[in-house]
Structures are given as structure tokens and as C-alpha cells.
Amino acid sequence: MADSTAIGAGMAALGVIGPAIGVGMAASKTLEGMARQPEMSQKLFINGVIFAAFCEGLGLIAALIGFKLAGFF
């Protein structure tokens, strides 16, 4: 594997860090909103799960790009 391909694969793998932070922030804000307005808990929970799923999807895409560049696929 060429050096530039290894660097690109490593940088794509680092793209997984951003979605992990995003999931943590979505969860913390959802819980904060539930604590402030308990009557909105159901809607906040659904929105929090949707945002977490979007963040995880972006993380999986970044991981797959890293594996593809590394030559695993």
C-alpha cells in the first residue's frame, strides 16, 4: 500500500470521532430537554434517537471509506 493511501485511510478512520461526539451531544441535550420539560419527553426522545442514528450513519460511512482506502474491500 502506498504511503498516501495509508494516510488517507487513517484520516478517513479519524472521521469516526466526529459522529461519536455528535451522539454524545445529542444524548446530553435530549436529557437536558427532558429534565426541563417532562411533558415533551416522548417527542424529545424520538428526535434524539433520530439524530443519533444520523450521526452513527456518518460514522459508518467514514469507517467504510477508511477500510476501502486501506484495501480491505
Description:
Helix 1 (3-14) packs antiparallel against helix 3 (41-70) and helix 2 runs antiparallel to helix 3. This protein has helices at residues 3-14, 17-36, 41-70. It is built from three helices and no strands. The protein has a single domain (3-70), classed as F1F0 ATP synthase subunit C (F1FO ATP Synthase), CATH 1.20.20.10. With 73 residues, the chain is mainly alpha-helical. The model has no long low-confidence stretch (mean pLDDT 85). It is elongated and about 55 Å long. The two termini are 13 Å apart. The longest helix has 30 residues, at 41-70.
**Total domain units:** 1
The number of helices is 3
In the CATH hierarchy, the third-tier topology is known as F1FO ATP Synthase
Q: Encode the helix/strand succession as letters.
A: HHH
Strand percentage: under 5%
Q: Note poorly predicted spans.
A: none
Count of DSSP strands: 0
Strand count, sense and barrel status of the largest sheet are:
none
- Mean pLDDT, all residues: 85
- Give the % helix: over 70%
- What is the rounded Rg? 17 Å
Q: Give the name of the CATH architecture.
A: Up-down Bundle
- Per CATH, the class reads Mainly Alpha
Shape descriptor reads elongated
Structural class: mainly alpha
Termini separation: 13 Å
CATH homologous superfamily annotation:
F1F0 ATP synthase subunit C
